[in-house]
# Entry
Amino acid sequence: MKLLICTRKKINGVQFRGRIQELQLLSAANTLPLAFFFSTQSTPNQQHEGEETIINRAFWTRKIHTLCIGDRNVDEALRLLDKIRLRGYSPDSLNLSSIIHALCDANRFSEAHHRFLLSIASQCVPDQRTCNVLIARLLDSRTPHATLHVIRSLIAVRPEFVPSLINYNRLMHHLCLFSQPTEAHGLFFDMRRRGHCPNAVSYTTLMDGYCKIGEEASTWKLFDEMLESGLVPNSLTYSVLLKGVLCKRDVERGRELMRQLWQKMMDENDPSVNNAAFANLVDSLCKEGFFQEVFRIAEDMPQGKCVSEEFAYGQMIDSLCRCGRNHGASRIVYVMRKRGFVPSLASYNNIIHGLSKEGGCMRAYQLLMEGVEFGFIMSEHTYKVLLEALCRDTDICKAREVMQLMLNREGVDRTRIYNIYLRAVCLVNNPTELLNVLVFMLQTQCQPDVITLNTVINGFCKMGRVEEALKVLDDMVMGKFCAPDSVTYTTVICGLLNLGRTEEALDVLQQVMPKKGFKPGVVTYNAVLRGLFKLQQANVAMEVFNRMVGDGIAADSVTYSIIIDGLFKSDQIDEAKRFWDDVIWPSRVHDNFVYAAILKGLCMSGKLNEACDFLYELVDCGVSPNVVSYNILIDHACKLGLKKGAYTILREMRKNGLTPDAVTWRILHKLHGNAGR
# Structure
């Protein structure tokens, strides 16, 4: 056990915490006995389990199973198991099975792996069938290395144990998903050594793994080996081969393989295999940019009746949307409609959503109007995205039509639909529309709620119309609408500060809110501090902070980030350092945003060395800054042309267990680009 003590140290006149001193304390016991199961919690007031004796295994097995499967309370089952073990009960494979299944159902896969390993180490190993069932559950975690560790532990205790062919195939698939086909190939050989004959799934899985990393030669070698072993490739196998060929841009060979794929689909009896093969093909074509080939398939449907047309069109739409080709997906819809098919609601929503996000709101609006003809119902999220896109395009008329379509639906929350529309209108400078919607709501007997009015006030404040916002607030206070809440007052304060009306904002904070029964919270104070620092009123901001602390409001990391950033921008560098040393550090309320604010402030003040010292002192005191903190220092070093210094910081980052991200390399690339010029 280690006791960590941080000592104080002065750097350039600033007091920081120093290096860690480690005091080794003797542990009361160096080792713990191996336990089959253990729990981390104890409940002293547990219900007595009756006078059942420990030898009644059927009762306890049934009780544990009921807790795990029926009640879905695995923690209680573990506590019960601990309790009866103290009375001499020995858990068996049935108990293990119940616990593992319950942990997997609760998505606690790492704990499930750990408890299975404890069971193996305790020489309590179920029969082969049960082990394979449990391994299949563990594979749902998609953590192949952890599951492989369990399998190897099982084999070490029971050399005769052989994982099932399905488990081998799934494990290979997971390894291939992690771009580790070589390790998967090792499992392939192990499977053969243990008496399994690989099937078409085994070969196809491994071939797909090699395709993912671009090793086409290994893929074709496996294909030839598959034919030599007497196995017949299915349509999914050919779609995997096609993926590899398309990656190499071999169009002619790809077309030949595609003809063979269509023929294989005719011979395939399992529709699910054909569906998987078709989905894999379309996905590969879209990823490699062969969109015209996708449109040709949509027109000609060369797969015939081997794949249902609804599934085929849906897969094309999905693949095109995931590649950002939403206009292409709308073309597939046109082909569908021409042939009498109707796209699914999910596919249609996906297209409209994608078009709205990528700047095609007019096409999205057109599709929405066409969709009304076949009963299309737009989701709320798509409605929000489309409205925002239309408002940014300053087409309020079409946005209003979209809102009316949503209001015409039965069972819809009308107030919520209006609120979403108002939030979109706030993106443009149109105060008249805000008032018109408010009036229209009242005319249609739809009562605005506090969210509606807060949205309207926020819109007015963003547009610089604070007087209109104050009128709405007065109407709320007078009882014409629902009563305001703390969000209402915070929004008004922000609007006043944005216009430089400091005294009025502070009056609302210190006089109006308490008078109306509202105690300003940390969110309100953070908004005030941010506004004051933007107005370069640092002294007033610090007075507000002191009042906040005096009123018993605990500051959070956002508060400290705002203050540090504001003090540095106000050239109060020494005050920022003092605030860190005397207030933030003792409070233990600091995170990566606070560190970033200090590092940015020191760098912008021309104190790169002091910023580096500060970061290293944090590490020495047991703090783990993230990669963003290091990127700030590297970026400033690069701007100063300090190539050696930048790479020194990079080495420190790696030494402290962090991996450079894309931003790090982009910064360093700019350094070399500037040096080259």
